[in-house]
Structures are given as C-alpha cells and as structure tokens.
Amino acid sequence: AIILGLESSCDETAAALVTSDRRILAHALAGQAEAHAPFGGVVPEIAARAHVDKLMPLIEQALADSGVTLSDVDAIAATAGPGLIGGVMVGLVTGKALAHATGKPLIAVNHLEGHALSPRLADPDLAFPYLLLLVSGGHCQLLLVEGVDRYRRLATTIDDAAGEAFDKSAKLLGLPYPGGPELEKLAATGDAASVPLPRPLLGSSEPHFSFAGLKSAVARAVHSGEHRPQDIAAAFQQAVVDCLIDRTGRAIKRAPGATALVVAGGVAANGSIRAALTGLAAHYGLPFVAPPMWLCTDNAAMIAWAGAERFAAGLTDTLDVPARPRWPLDPDAETVRGAGV
Ligand code: ATP
Ligand code: MG
Ligand code: FE
C-alpha cells in the first residue's frame, strides 16, 4: 500500500509518501527556524500560520517527486496530536479534506507513535517487543513497544524533557534557537570534567528521569562567569548522557523479553548519546537500533510509516476524529506522576 503522511505538530511542516514495504517514495519538509529564532523558541501562532502556508505546496511537491497521484494513494495519515493544537489542526483538517475528497481512509497518527515506530521503517529486522528510549523536545520516556498501538510506559520525566533541557541550556549559553544541535557542536570543543554538574535521579530505585535540576545548575555555572561556554556545554551533555544511560540500563534489566534497545526522537540525533547507547546495548548483549538522523527529528515519513503499520492492522479512523494537544501513548499514563505526558 502507498500512504501519504502529514506532519505539523510543532515547527516542521512535512509531507511524505511511504509504502508498506518500506520504500520512501518522497519526503518534503519545511522548517520554521528563522521565523521563531527572534523569539528564542516556538511561537504557536506563527507556527500555525506557517503550516497553513506550507502544507499544501509540500504535499504537491511530494506527489510530484514520487510520480504518484492522489488516486494511487491507499490511505492518508495525519498527525492528530500531541503538539501545538493550532498546527495539529492544520495537518489533521487537511488530511480529513483529502480523505473526504478522494474517498480514501484517514489514519489519525499519534506523533509519538510516529517516533516510536520510525526505527522499523529504517530496519526491517526490528521485531516487537523492543525497549525504546524516546527522547524528543517534549518527551523523555522509556517504553516497551509490544506492537502497533501497544505501548507500555516504564518511565517518564518528572519535570523537563531531554530536548527541552538541551534547548534551555543552549539558550542560557547564548546559542541560537533551535539549541540542541548547536549545543552539541559547542560541546565537541569543551572539557566536560572541568565543570561539576548534578545527575538527577542517577542510581534511583524509581524508574523516572529528571532534568530541571541540571538545567538550574547550568544557569548557575553560566552566571558564575567562572567557566568557558564550551566546557559547560560538554559537561551538560555528559550529564545528560550519564542520566540516560543509568535510567536505560535500569530498564534493560527489567525488560528481559526485549529484542533490541532502540532510540528515537529528535535528541537521538545527538552523536554522544548514540555512542553511549551503542555501548550500553553491547554491554547487555542487545542489538542497538537508531534511525538515521533525518528520521529522528520531526518529519512526515515517520507519520506515513506509522500510518502504514496501522493500515496493515486495520486501524483507520472516521472523519470526526479529534485533534488532541495531549495524547499519551500508554493508556495507563495518567497514573504516572509528574509531567512529560
Ligand atoms: P515531541 O516529539 O516530544 O512532540 P518535538 O517534535 O518538538 O517534540 P523532535 O523534533 O522530535 O521534538 O525533537 C526536537 C528536539 O531534539 C529539540 O529539543 C532539539 O533541540 C533536539 N535535538 C535535535 N538535534 C539534537 C542534537 N544533535 N543534540 C541534542 N538535541 C537535539
Ligand atoms: Mg522541530
Ligand atoms: Fe517530535
């Protein structure tokens, strides 16, 4: 089957055509970094307007690039949440309109399911169940991915997400938005050992993550004027790596059935984090799977692929499906304390 995927939940507008046998026929993407940069973060109203301007041209571009017409498409998958509600509505309403006009089924995709299943687009051998570290701008979770639509959340952050910590720390260091990749570049030239920073919840018996205290320590280190920015960046990145490895190691010991350790989400584009997770997986004798960098940050190929997986499972939606600003993957999510849902 051929699936058209649409993504508009944050500050990337994207359209892609992906087949159920993992061929990426086309993927078109427009970022909005310049529009938001003067404000140091994503402005929801600016984002929603940009999605309105860019989505239809990107859909047309993806169709032209692939040589596929709308009548060749078998289903239309659109992100229906979680995310900035204005943007989510632009993509979902566009998907509904296309589905209505063509008579093709609509698939409402959870953006997090897009991230969670993206490693299976890149790696045909990745089988359920796998242990997933989902690290993105809004989320930091460990999930047992048991199947399509079957997620068991083992841990979440009790305050900031990992990407949020990268972005806030980058801002404190005076780096331009979006800060994560900029901080990684700066860290490459620094000495992590020269700035002592905390590692919240390291070794804790509870499963969760915490990054707020680390971010506050970065603020103190910056304001003290005693350290070089590259050293603070390197120390911050090392602290995040240590926390992620500690928490993920704890989860591996409690998920004996997992076929692989998998990482996904925008922060999975970070080279130090990928390298450390590679070592951790090897230590426990697990295969390590990470999607290519471009598939880690927001894109529509992962939404089309999640759509393909749901379509194969017979999971389609009606045109009255709602846009959801909050939408946990795990049905038991409300019982886990803290934010990060
Ligand atoms: P969510 O998926 O939780 O709704 P989002 O869609 O905004 O949030 P993603 O696009 O998946 O998040 O990821 C963006 C995040 O990834 C940002 O916080 C960004 O700083 C971070 N990021 C991207 N590249 C890197 C990198 N190389 N190192 C560290 N962080 C990075
Ligand atoms: Mg983004
Ligand atoms: Fe995302």
Automatic annotation (TrEMBL):
Cofactor: Fe(2+)
SUPFAM superfamilies registered for this protein in UniProt: Actin-like ATPase domain
Catalysed conversion reaction: L-threonylcarbamoyladenylate + adenosine(37) in tRNA = N(6)-L-threonylcarbamoyladenosine(37) in tRNA + AMP + H(+)
Cofactor: binding comment: Binds 1 Fe(2+) ion per subunit.
An annotated GO BP: tRNA threonylcarbamoyladenosine modification
Top EC class for this record: transferase
CDD domains: ASKHA_NBD_TsaD_bac
Compartments (UniProt record): Cytoplasm
Positions with a binding annotation for Fe cation: 111, 115, 298
Top-rank taxon, per record: Bacteria
Signal peptide: none
Residues annotated to bind substrate: 134-138, 167, 180, 184, 270
Described function: Required for the formation of a threonylcarbamoyl group on adenosine at position 37 (t(6)A37) in tRNAs that read codons beginning with adenine. Is involved in the transfer of the threonylcarbamoyl moiety of threonylcarbamoyl-AMP (TC-AMP) to the N6 group of A37, together with TsaE and TsaB. TsaD likely plays a direct catalytic role in this reaction.
Protein's name according to its UniProt entry: tRNA N6-adenosine threonylcarbamoyltransferase
Organismal lineage: Bacteria, Pseudomonadati, Pseudomonadota, Alphaproteobacteria, Sphingomonadales
